[in-house]
């Protein structure tokens, strides 16, 4: 495993939690293993692990980008990750307000509904 992959796995676990990463690793097959390795090294090891901005700020950026692009499943996962990144509900709302202005009200409206549902689920557990 490369240094970036090792750093990426550590950051991935810090942000998403051991349970999520363990499930993803257990579900990995020979077919998608190269993809899992790519995201661990590139996304988590080379981008999320940079020390130029905080995990809170990266979390907000990621949520805004996922919402703007309509990546709903990833959006819910990253909203759950706010429990570990330090981004608050208010931070998420501010990020989604930016989505409304720069990417469209329908995308933001849909993302806000996902955020509300995800935060409610997090409060129940």
Condensed summary:
The chain is mainly alpha-helical. The protein has helices at 3-16, 18-27, 33-48, 55-69, 72-85, 89-102, 105-124. Helix 1 packs across helix 2 and helix 5 (72-85) crosses helix 7 (105-124).
Explained architecture:
With 125 residues, the chain is an all-alpha fold. It folds into two domains: 1-52, no CATH class; 53-125, AhpD-like, CATH 1.20.1290.10. The protein has seven helices and no strands. The protein has helices spanning 3-16, 18-27, 33-48, 55-69, 72-85, 89-102, 105-124. α4 runs antiparallel to α5.
Keywords:
125 residues, mainly alpha, AhpD-like, 2 domains, 7 helices, 82% helix, 0% strand, globular, CMD-like, Decarb_PcaC
Task: Report the CATH superfamily of the largest domain.
Answer: AhpD-like
The CATH architecture designation of the largest domain is Up-down Bundle
Shape: globular
How many strands?
0
CATH class of the largest domain: Mainly Alpha
GO molecular function: peroxiredoxin activity
InterPro entries: 4CMD/NDH-1_regulator, AhpD-like, CMD-like, Decarb_PcaC
Protein name: 4-carboxymuconolactone decarboxylase
Organism: Alsobacter soli
